Structures are given as structure tokens and as C-alpha cells.
Structure to design on (571 residues):
């Protein structure tokens, strides 16, 4: 085979592999919508989203309790993770001496690497009994939020750290030269400049939190009720799919795919927001 | 209340910042330490080499689970590596900044954010139901390929892009075609980076549960073919904890998982450090 022919063939082959990702995304959208739309038709969009009763046995499919469950857990986990994550990112980017960073960074990487079932397991064995002491049966929004916090923490830390590091050194030098303390420089110069990166890290963390499944099933109790306090059990959208898909048929199965559509649309929106925020931030810095 | 002096605020802020770092490390130590302390006493050669007996007490070891995990990861890599590397080569070496490239990049970014359980649903319809692969290693592996593709492409692209341009120019100046330049010069230089990408994907495949929970079937038997079901180490932990409540076995399996992940992380770090040094040295 002439080398020019090989060259051409190789070009087409790598181009084809590059289109695979796009095809997969398309296929996911098509298959999930195709199987989920019958449920929207049968149940009605409004009744499905705002219905508060989910009883597959009696043909009642409303996912509002699960939407609330997912939202509450996500918000609580972010409330816990954001201050901790930003503090840790500042430590890594600005404050910590080299040796501390050398310990801290692999630790954060390891946090990403721990399988979600292991978080779930530790939550199940340590947190749930501890929370039972406070009240309720232990399987709760609180347990789920704490487990989730540990899981979104690395996302927030690494992206925030990168965006703090991306702030031009001249900004920092300028602030210090004006007599600002290190903390004043961080708070009034570095953090505002890195704002878009920090927002993006939170949005991406939110995406991770909404999408997490197995660890949630293990500690949240999976009851289909509105959680009245953080000590109450709840069920997430992801948990709903995973728990019921293996035995669901007909309209029940379709309703689970419709749950998937809600989740999919939500995540695509969140990622869109994150990408736009990050791009805008980068542009701003390039101009400066 | 009097306004605090900048020095006092600085001191308080630094305490907060260091506190954040300590809490993060503490979380890691609690999770890892607890699983290792509870799990390691249950580890033995016997545990690794006997099959799980099933039943409510979760007797037996994890031999079939380890085999299933290797099988699944192997099949995943066979599909993932060529496709991911090909896409990375296209994006790094061929793609011009046109609408098509932006579309492909957008697809990769979006795929990277799609939750595991959605990939699971997709694999459940396409591979398990429509293509009749049933709950099997094949269904699980193909689902994993979809899930890991963005990671593979991104890390390989980084590795390829970090090869200095002078290498490419020198090759092309000698009269090679573009592909000869890529195949003989760029890829061999980028190999350590590509290996890092593969190891990273192996790690993520081992961590993954949700998408496998609905495609792999969860059978604890020894897999005999691509179409037999199975369970990975992570899934085994889930089944032990949730269905049989055999926490000691779950902890032991969890300890195996954590040790594997620590090894994989150390390996990736070492490799990528060496790769970066090599790239800097050759500039």
C-alpha cells in the first residue's frame, strides 16, 4: 500500500473515531426520549412533574417528591462543600508551603478515586447509626448530604484552585504593593477575579451531586415522602431509576425513562451554564 | 463593635483556610482508615481465591468477582483505547477550528457530565434490550466505553498536544506523510501520557457502579463468556452491604478496592511526572 493511501485511510479512521462521541450523545438522547415520551403522553407532563404520589402498582406516577429529594440533598451538600472547598483551594493555591501541597494534592486526588459505594458503605456503617442517636432512623437527608459533600469536594477544590492560579501575578503584586495584607489580597483581588471559575466549579459540583446514585441509595432510605427535616429519609431521581428499573415494565418503565429525561435535561443545562461561565472568565482574563 | 484590624482578620482567615485543609484530609483519613482497619483483618489469600457462596451471611471470598472485574475492564479497554486514541489524534493533529470540530468538542464535554445512571439507562435499552446482549459483561463493557470515552479522549489529547512542535516539523521536513509523522514520531513520544490515560480509565472503570448495576446483571458466578453476567468489586460491595448485610465482607472487599485505587493513583502520578520531565527535557 502506498504511504499516501495509508495517510488518507488513517485520516478517515481517526475522523470516524472522533465522531463516535457525538453519535453516542445523540443515541442517548434518542433512546431515552423514545422510551420516556410515552409516559409523558399517558400521564401528562404536568401530572408527572408535579404529581406527589408514586405508586406504580396503582398506575400513579408523580415525581415531585423525588425532585424535592434530589434538590434538598444537593443544596445541603453544596452548603457544606462550598466553604470547605474554597478554603482548601485557597490553601493549595496561595497559602500552603510546597511540602503541605505535596501531601494535600494527592489526598484530594484520592478523594476523587474512592468508589462511590465505599463512601456509601462508610456512610451506612458510621453516619447512619450516629444520626439515629440524634433522631429518626438514621437513613436521612443529612447522612446523604454529608456523603455527597465528600464526593463533590474534589471537584470544587480542583477547579477553584486552577482559577485562582490563573489570576495574573501582577494583580496580586499590585494589591500587596498597595499595603494590603495577604488575606485582603485574596478576598478583594484574587477571589473576585477568579469568580467565574469558582461559580463553574460549584455548578459542576452540583451536576455531580444531582447525578450520584449508588451512595445515595445506600444512606438516604429511599422512602417516597417529602422530607420534613434533614433527619427524614427521602428518595432521589437517580435512586428512583436504579431501584426500580430492573423489574419495571410497560408504562412504569417508561415513567423511569421519563425520570431520566428530567435528569438529563437538568444536567445538560447545568453543564451549559458551567461551560459558558468558564469561557467568559477566560475571555475576561485574556483581555486583561 | 469595633472594626477588626486587618492583621486580626488575616489571622482568623488563615485559621479558617488551614481548617478547611485539615477537615478535607480528615475526611479522607476517616473513609480510607475506617475501611482499611475494618477490612484488612478479613483479607487473606483464601478470601481472594474462593468464590462467594451467596446466602444471607455472604460467606466465601471474591474470586469470581475479581475475574469478572478483570474481564469487564479488559473488554472495555479493547474497544475504548482504539476509539478514544483515534478521536484524540483527530482532535490534536487534524481538526481545524470549524463548526464540526466545535460540535464534537461540545459532545465530549456534555458526555463527560452525563450521570452514570443515564448511561446505565441507555445501555439497558440499547445493549440489554434492543441488541439482546442481556445482562452481560458485553453490555456492561460497552456501556462503560460510552461513559469513559470523554476521559480517554481528553487525557490522550493532552498527551499528544504536549509533544513539542519541533518533533513534528523535523519529521515533516524529512518528507514523511502526516500519518507517518504521527505514527512514528508523535505517538511514540506521547506513549507514557497515553498509558497514564489508560490507567486512569481502568481506575474509573473499577470505581463505577450505577451504570453497571443496570447492565451487568450482578451474577456472582464465574463468567464463562462475553454474554454471561457478572459483578465487579464495587457492585459486590453494594450487594453485600444492601442485600446480605455482610458488612465484614463488604469492608474486606472495600479494602481491596481502596488498595487497588491507591496503587493506580500512585502509578498515574509517577508516570505523568516522568512524562512531563521528559517533555521538558526534550525542548
Amino acid at each position: 500500500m502506498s504511504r499516501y493511501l495509508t495517510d488518507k485511510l488513517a485520516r478517515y479512521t481517526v475522523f470516524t473515531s472522533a465522531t463516535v462521541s457525538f453519535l453516542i450523545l445523540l443515541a442517548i438522547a434518542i433512546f431515552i426520549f423514545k422510551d420516556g415520551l410515552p409516559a409523558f403522553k399517558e400521564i401528562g407532563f404536568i401530572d408527572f412533574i408535579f404529581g406527589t404520589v408514586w405508586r406504580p402498582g396503582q398506575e400513579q406516577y408523580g415525581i415531585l417528591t423525588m425532585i424535592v429529594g434530589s434538590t434538598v440533598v444537593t443544596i445541603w451538600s453544596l452548603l457544606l462543600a462550598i466553604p470547605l472547598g474554597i478554603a482548601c483551594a485557597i490553601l493549595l493555591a496561595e497559602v500552603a508551603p510546597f511540602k503541605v501541597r505535596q501531601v494535600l494534592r494527592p489526598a484530594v486526588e484520592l478523594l476523587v478515586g474512592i468508589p462511590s459505594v465505599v463512601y456509601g458503605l462508610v456512610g451506612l456503617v458510621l453516619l447512619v447509626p450516629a444520626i439515629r442517636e440524634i433522631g429518626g432512623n438514621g437513613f436521612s437527608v443529612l447522612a446523604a448530604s454529608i456523603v455527597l459533600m465528600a464526593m463533590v469536594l474534589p471537584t470544587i477544590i480542583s477547579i477553584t484552585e486552577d482559577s485562582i492560579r490563573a489570576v495574573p501575578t501582577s494583580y496580586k503584586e499590585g494589591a500587596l504593593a498597595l499595603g494590603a495584607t495577604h488575606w485582603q489580597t485574596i478576598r478583594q483581588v484574587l477571589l473576585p477575579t477568579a469568580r467565574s471559575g469558582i461559580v463553574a466549579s460549584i455548578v459542576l459540583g452540583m451536576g455531580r451531586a444531582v447525578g450520584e446514585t449508588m451512595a445515595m441509595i445506600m444512606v438516604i432510605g429511599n422512602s417516597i415522602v417529602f422530607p420534613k427535616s434533614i433527619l427524614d429519609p427521602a428518595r432521589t431521581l437517580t435512586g428512583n431509576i436504579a431501584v426500580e428499573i430492573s423489574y419495571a415494565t410497560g408504562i412504569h418503565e417508561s415513567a423511569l425513562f421519563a425520570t431520566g429525561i428530567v435528569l438529563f435535561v437538568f444536567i445538560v443545562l447545568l453543564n451549559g451554564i458551567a461551560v459558558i461561565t468558564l469561557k467568559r472568565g477566560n475571555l475576561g482574563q485574556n483581555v486583561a | 463593635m469595633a472594626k477588626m484590624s486587618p492583621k486580626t482578620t488575616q489571622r482568623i482567615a488563615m485559621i479558617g483556610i488551614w481548617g478547611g485543609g485539615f477537615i478535607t484530609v480528615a475526611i479522607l483519613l476517616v473513609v480510607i482508615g475506617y475501611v482499611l482497619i475494618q477490612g484488612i483483618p478479613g483479607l487473606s489469600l483464601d478470601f481472594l481465591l474462593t468464590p462467594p457462596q451467596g446466602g444471607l451471611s455472604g460467606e466465601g471470598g471474591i474470586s469470581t468477582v475479581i475475574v469478572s472485574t478483570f474481564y469487564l475492564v479488559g473488554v472495555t479497554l479493547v474497544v475504548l483505547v482504539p476509539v478514544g486514541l483515534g478521536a484524540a489524534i483527530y482532535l490534536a493533529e487534524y481538526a481545524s477550528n470549524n463548526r464540526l470540530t466545535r460540535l464534537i468538542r461540545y459532545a465530549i464535554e456534555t458526555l463527560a457530565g452525563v450521570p452514570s445512571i443515564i448511561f446505565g439507562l441507555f445501555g439497558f435499552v440499547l445493549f440489554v434490550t434492543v441488541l439482546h446482549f442481556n445482562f452481560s459483561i458485553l453490555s456492561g463493557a460497552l456501556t462503560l466505553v460510552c461513559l469513559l470515552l470523554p476521559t480517554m479522549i481528553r487525557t490522550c489529547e493532552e498527551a499528544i498536544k504536549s509533544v513539542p512542535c519541533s518533533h513534528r516539523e523535523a519529521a515533516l521536513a524529512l518528507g514523511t506523510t502526516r500519518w507517518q509523522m504521527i505514527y512514528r514520531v508523535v505517538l511514540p513520544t506521547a506513549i507514557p501520557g497515553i498509558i497514564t490515560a489508560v490507567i486512569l480509565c481502568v481506575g474509573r472503570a473499577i470505581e463505577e457502579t450505577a451504570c453497571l448495576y443496570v447492565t451487568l446483571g450482578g451474577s456472582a458466578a464465574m463468567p464463562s463468556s462475553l454474554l454471561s453476567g457478572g459483578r465487579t468489586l464495587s457492585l459486590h460491595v453494594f450487594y453485600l452491604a444492601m442485600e446480605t448485610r455482610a458488612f465484614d465482607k463488604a469492608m474486606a472487599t472495600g479494602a481491596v478496592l481502596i488498595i487497588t485505587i491507591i496503587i493506580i493513583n500512585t502509578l498515574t502520578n509517577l508516570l505523568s511526572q516522568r512524562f512531563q520531565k521528559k517533555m521538558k527535557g526534550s525542548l
The first strand of chain A starts at residue 54 and ends at 55. The CA atoms of residues 22 and 204 of chain A lie 21 Å apart. The first helix of chain A runs from residue 3 to 43.
